[in-house]
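Worked Example 4.2. Consider the chain below.
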Amino acid sequence: SASILLFFVAQLSIFSSQFLTAINAQDLHEEKNLEELCAELVAGGHCRSNPDLIKRKCAKPCMNWQKSVRSTDTKNIHEDEPSFFDLSSKNATGSVINFRKFEGYVTIVANVAKLCEEGKTEEIYAEYTKIQQIWPYTVEFVIFTFEHPEIDYDAGADFCEPHKEAFKKQGRAINIMEEAKVNGLDSHPVYKYLKSTFDVDDLDLGIPTVFLITPDGEQIEVHLGPSAREIRKYIYLHLERDL
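Applying the procedure from the previous section yields the following structure tokens:
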């Protein structure tokens, strides 16, 4: 199953040229040097920002990194506390969505980096849609796009056209929301709520973060670094338990 790690793939232009040169020139027989180089790449965050460029020679170290960042936390929401269903947000076309519509569903909230490479945004949306279509009447996806700090979005007027086309496409089974700031004082109200629930100031944008809200809104889970297969598992467990 494709990892949701791909949701945070950055553009080739932000990859360190010295690392790219080194890994392309690396002799496979120089195992020690390759191991050291991969360790440096992992430490520099390139497993998450440029997986396509290093997976050929550093696949195992990156797989170990992904496993190491995975974690889960759960918070119970009491009656006297604000509810997820009290929130609202504009979607990608500007219509306001009242989150009361998600009551009674297992709801997944995910933040997806704004990716300008041809086909990448559509690939991400297709992965989420594939999961939602397994349980079309009991699961909702709420997807927010954000500008990743490692991507240069000023590369020309048409640079992000592939993303714009996918972002504005209508008739999807999943909810594509407005572009939002995930971190900072002016972060989107939905993320202010979710972060405050877990007493977190900012999310690590290098780690895929998925929130799961139970049908009654009385419990919220945060999953760091989950694969698509793991998300399906979490949804299945809640459907078995809560519905």
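The longest strand covers residues 106-113. Residues 51-69 form the longest helix (19 residues). Compare this with Example 4.1 before moving on.
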